[in-house]
Amino acid sequence: MMKKLLPIFALCCASLAHAQAVKTTPVTLNFNAIAKTDKGTFVPVNCQDSYLFGSENSKATLADLRFYVSNVQVLTKSGKKLPVQLTANDFQQSDVGLIDLENGTDHCAMRGDEQTNRALTGVVQGKYRPSEFVGVSFDIAVPNAKNHSLFSSSDAPLNLQAMSWAWLAGRKFMKVELNVADKIHNLADDSYASLYNVHFGRTGCTGDVATGEIDCAKNNRITVNLTDKHWQQKIITLDLNALFIKNNIRQNQTAASGCMSAEADKDCAGVFTMAGLAGELQRIFYLTDK
Amino acid sequence: MTLIRVLLCSTALMSGFLVANALAKNTTDEWVWYLPAAFPKPFVPIDNPMSHAKVELGRHLFYDKRLSVNGQMSCGSCHIQSLAFSDGKTHAVGTTGEAHPKNTPSLANLVYSPNFNWANPAVVSLETQLLSPLFGEHPVELGLNDANFAKSQQQFAQDDKYPALFAQAFGRPFVEPQDFRIDDIAKAIASFERSIISTNSKYDRYLAGREHLNESEKRGMDLFFGEKAECFHCYGSVNFNDQLMYFDGKKMQISGKAFHNTGLYDLGGGNYPDANQGLFEFTHKDSDKGKFKAPSLRNVAITAPYNHDGSTATLEMVLQNYANGGRVITDGKYRGDGRKNPNKSDLITKIELTKQEQADIIAFLKTLTDENLLTNPAYADPILPK
Fold first, then answer.
1. Could you say which of A170, B91, B279, B322 has the lowest number of CB atoms within 10 Å?
2. pTM given for the model
3. Confidence check on the interface: ipTM exceeds 0.90, yes or no
4. CB contact, 8 Å: A110 with chain B?
């Protein structure tokens, strides 16, 4: 069937015939993160400027901002979900990529690093016109099978200590850290801190000593579904204002400063709700115009 | 004359050959555990077999302050040999001054432990565990991270000893900074830690028929292993705890997987203080609140203060808590009746112990101190550049 059709295509449309020989369609996911300025505008974040965060509009700067993306799929017009195989490079393995939105300068110097990565690239098997993809979905996570490998012997981008979570023998899926200008009051012991953390990742983990396999009660995996036929011309935006909107970042109620996904940490309630980890849909990722 | 020269020559050759051979042998020589008969053979992960060269490298790394963000601390700063590799503090304090919520546990006989820390079922190998003190962020212990670890690697590459020590341990050249991988460092430190064995206490020598226990120690031993004090339920293994991992000649065996709530706190609903909820932090089960592993009682007399959070100052007080069936805290933010903690182990019930009986148990516990462990130069700081 194909063989019979090909010459006809070749006659009329050389480029399409060439495309059919490749049999994959490239896909790019562009990311950024925005925050609220003291003028009330929303701008892409950098490591230099201060922004307002949380329920009390508290002043803070970025300290770190990275997350893993996996299970990337595109939605076709016909309602099918097609897996995107990421292209292996310093920020991607076929099934997981790292978005790194800090560059280790200024206020990110302590926690961040120099490298940045604002896009994931991959391919869908088969040839499609861009207009056939009417949406994209992904998880903010490392696939379970790779999550518990040692960072020290993993390939990029799973080789970062900064994203490892040694005490749970896993990884932070998402790491957002703020330097809070006027300090954080830790109510549990009346101490003060300056770093407000959001670390999402698998928790409730137990390992099998004999096999080394690790199983976790909670996946804490943010699922993002974005439907928009122009999504490829847009940018997938992480709204940091939305992430922190239910948290007073100048107060820490229990456990670690901010939320490190601990079960009993009251400071997780707000960010979990906004990130869709408490049963509702996530409200922190959406598409914006470039 | 000629004959003598030939002989001299061959002797020189011979000794050169012997030295080279000994070096080669040292790296591949099978590690031998010297253990009393009662001790099972330790289980060692297949991907990190013991070797003298690795243990020696690990000893250097264990005491090397260049493995901290500010060059102020090493593993050995909190795990002090003369204190059975604990630190005598209520809470451990990291290299940047941050206090750890937990008390530093002893490292003796860690090779027999199927899990680590006070209650962490997620970390199942020593090679994984030690990444936490090295790289952990909450709390910061040694404070290494992606950036400053690269600096440590550079220092190692320029070090007088390390390129040779690493090469001998792993059988490949170590030249460039990136050759000194975290994996290698972890394997070497884990090997050294596994080599820290405590089997030569007065009690062990008594078992071997080489020493006598006095009357008080004997009465204490009978109480310890008897149904009145019931200590042995949780502390009855050859390592004086109840979780033992070992090698049966064919495969790894684990006896005991229990974690226990001993009624130290009840802040309502079985809660223990923040950041010290024990097994619950991993399993998220309310019934696991306040559950910790029973630490080995070997060398317990010199590892004060006690319990996961160092909240019990003396052995006498530990015993009192057990005898009372839990601990009552009458004021402060941790006020509560630990005896009524819903997760408290059934074994922790009120026991009537006379003053003499308590003193006898403590006298027995003191026979578990292994002076050899505290002074053995094989475990000591090799004196590195500071």
1. B91
2. 0.86
3. no
4. no
